[in-house]
Design brief:
Length: about 280
């Protein structure tokens, strides 16, 4: 309809919050922002298993993942937007040569609806760790890995408008065990993967901006430029300053990185404040 969206309640609030099908259903919902109506979708497993979901650009289909809990891995499903025709696409309960359980999330459809990007994250109690960027077709086939990404911090994948490239956040200090546990220790760069060629290029890193965190990439309409946010770790009590940057990517199939000295520059700096 153009004014409906997917919604999932993560957890109920407070010690008295109900955890019953009658009182609270986390699950997956479609909410109509125009009239306030909402519909619960039957995801085929207990509603609390929902991990992530994303609708196709035309709104006709939904891809989603479920997991019963830690160290259980995940399953990937597809269904019609009304909850019908549920299809199990894949299970990631033994996703690697070592039998590593993985969680699929951050599903993002290409603008043309032909390809789905997603992350696979090792299913463990480590809060912040590496993940891998994968793509597949809407039928769950032609899956292949493109790159290593930052995993546990929740940064979205971002398709270029021409459906050829994916901007993502790459962690640049994988060797730091402190960063596995503390968000403030994270170091990141904005990178771009060319889906057709498999080429991955780092576009904006700390070496280029002079700032520890480079995140939130957004594409220009012609897919030739990225804007992004750069900042040093924000104080959790008083906030800090973030800078908005723009970086051209060059023309053709070869994606090139640009240094801050001649092709990349900050647009604006903004003070942000922590909230209680």
């Amino acid at each position: 309809s153009g004014h409906s969206f997917l919604y999932s309640a993560i957890m109920p609030q407070g010690p008295q919050a109900p955890f019953t099908a009658q009182g609270w259903n986390p699950g997956l919902w479609i909410v109509d922002a125009a009239d306030g109506s909402f519909t619960n979708l039957n995801i085929g497993v207990p509603s609390a298993y929902i991990v992530d979901a994303s609708s196709s650009p035309d709104g006709s289909k939904i891809i989603y993942s479920t997991s019963p809990g830690l160290n259980s891995g995940s399953d990937v499903w597809e269904m019609q937007s009304d909850g019908s025709q549920q299809t199990h696409l894949m299970g990631l309960k033994s996703g690697g040569s070592q039998g590593v359980q993985t969680i699929a999330s951050r599903f993002t459809w290409s603008p043309d609806g032909k390809t789905i990007a997603y992350q696979r994250l090792t299913d463990s109690s480590v809060p912040f760790q590496a993940a891998s960027l994968w793509v597949m077709n809407p039928q769950g086939q032609q899956t292949h890995r493109l790159a290593t990404t930052d995993g546990g911090h929740g940064y979205d994948l971002n398709w270029s408008p021409d459906s050829q490239k994916i901007a993502f956040i790459a962690r640049t200090n994988f060797q730091s065990k402190v960063a596995d546990q503390q968000m403030q220790a994270l170091q990141t760069a904005v990178s771009v993967a060319n889906v057709q060629s498999g080429q991955v290029t780092q576009v904006a890193s700390s070496a280029q901006t002079g700032l520890q965190m480079n995140v939130q990439p957004h594409w220009s309409q012609d897919s030739s430029k990225l804007s992004f946010v750069a900042f040093n770790p924000l104080n959790t009590r008083v906030g800090g300053t973030v800078s908005y940057w723009s970086a051209p990517l060059g023309n053709g199939s070869q994606i090139k990185g640009f240094s801050a000295s001649n092709n990349m520059s900050p647009i604006q700096s903004v003070q942000v404040f922590a909230t209680s």
